[in-house]
Design a protein that fits this description.
Layout lengths: L4 E2 L2 E2 L11 E14 L6 E17 L5 H13 L7 E3 L17 E2 L15 E5 L14 E4 L2 E5 L11 E6 L12 E2 L5 E5 L6 E3 L5 E9 L2
Antiparallel strand pairs: 1-2, 3-4, 4-14, 5-12, 6-7, 7-10, 8-9, 8-11, 9-10, 12-14, 13-14
Amino acid sequence: MSYPTFNGWTIIDPPPSPGFSGIVLRMIDTVGKVRSPFSAQSQVQLWPGADWWEFEYEMPPLSLAQAADWQGWLASLQGGANVFQVGDSNRPQPQNPVTGSIPVCATGALPSAVNLAGATSLATSGWRPSQSRVLLRGDYLQVGYRLHIVLQAVSSDVNGDATINVWPSLREQPVQGQAVILNCPKGLFWLASNARQLSISVTRLSAVGFKCVEAR
């Protein structure tokens, strides 16, 4: 079987079922803070681009056949050598239904701080014109293989364009016309540890869980 690749990593996605029974999401920024011992005032430095996702997933009790499939997938990852795509299955779509065409990234004639690797703003086009709150704070979107969360409510202008403030920062510069995925968006992750574990109870049901970190 041939798997897709990205940045030289082989992408081996997890089995499609059963769904996760529990998810823990962590959003991490790198911030330096120094407090003066004389004035008690603080200096704060946010390091641009030093932000990332960490997820933890728990599965419901698995039958022997289901456990075998998941164990085989965990084995195929070879620890942290290969990557996979996952997201927040509790919120697979935006809070307001998106109608019309699929929005795309718009990279032409943009300010220098937009749509570049490391930027926190994403310029898009293809929305229905003059629509308010096409996305809401907390909605997810995917660009390429990357998962982002929307930081402020978004409205489209008369041309159907909209600039979206996102976290984490863009990892790669999007291509003009690249689709913005709003349905079941996912990010690219690898296992947080090379060790994988599967527990089997006396009922012959198995417990599987794993921690993962955004692949960068």
